[in-house]
Design goal:
By secondary structure, this protein is α+β, with helices and mostly antiparallel strands. The strands form two sheets. It has a seven-stranded antiparallel β-sheet with strand order 2-3-4-8-7-6-5. Strands 1-9 form a two-stranded antiparallel ribbon.
């Protein structure tokens, strides 16, 4: 259901529907291991493709809240670097009641979000290499989160060639999934993000794209998301 304008105070939290939709995923959804600096708030998006045989592909993407000082969430170091328009939108309280989940999401905008940081990708008939899927994930993050750093003064509708290609991926890396050391592929050369991914034993691929500036705070290990 889509809402336009003022949301009724009792409108359901859309994350509940998203969690239910994740049951359609043919393989387990992975995320980063639980750790103090990352908070998983069920901000998961699900994209899929359909054909006459049903679902042909699915991608689940997890967004995390980053806590630079998880022991004291009131520490100003935890705050995101916001522009004046965004800050004003958070501070201004409308004269009508809002759903509790919406208030929570608006307040969470004060803190850095690792947008779509981890992807679990499934194809009914695998046709993309791990390297190309990792490059796609990295380019998706760069185009949406680092556009102004890459192309100052750029317009949102301007088109650009991919920053990362499959040939730039190192296929000799390692990672840990559910406590098991696994072969992996990584991109450790981009100035803005670090990317890593691996094929899953049960089919599919997991990839993570993380801000290089925050990498020292994050344990880059995967686990099945419960």
């Amino acid at each position: 259901m889509e809402w336009v304008g003022i949301l009724p105070e009792d409108v359901p939290d859309p994350r509940a529907e998203c969690v239910e939709n994740l049951k359609l995923m043919p393989i387990p959804v992975l995320g980063l291991i639980p750790q103090p600096s990352l908070e998983d708030t069920d901000s998961v998006s699900l994209n899929y493709g359909l054909d006459d045989r049903g679902y042909s592909e699915m991608t689940a993407s997890i967004t995390y809240t980053l806590w630079r000082n998880p022991d004291d969430r009131s520490d100003p170091v935890n705050l995101a670097d916001l522009d004046e328009e965004t800050r004003r939108g958070i501070e201004e309280i409308p004269p009508w009641p809002r759903p509790p989940w919406l208030i929570e999401q608006v307040e969470r905008m004060r803190y850095p979000q690792l947008w779509e940081a981890v992807r679990t990708t499934w194809h009914r008939e695998p046709r993309s290499s791990l390297e190309s899927l990792l490059a796609d994930h990295i380019n998706h993050i760069l185009m949406n989160q680092y556009r102004q750093q890459l192309w100052p003064g750029d317009k949102p509708w301007d088109q650009h060639a991919p920053v990362i290609t499959g040939r730039m991926v190192n296929g000799q890396a390692r990672t840990v999934i559910n406590g098991v050391d696994m072969p992996a592929a990584e991109v450790d050369t981009d100035p803005f993000v670090y990317g890593i991914g691996a094929r899953l034993a049960g089919g599919g691929v997991v990839t993570a794209v993380l801000p290089r500036a925050e990498l020292h705070r994050i344990q880059v290990r995967f686990t099945t998301r419960r």
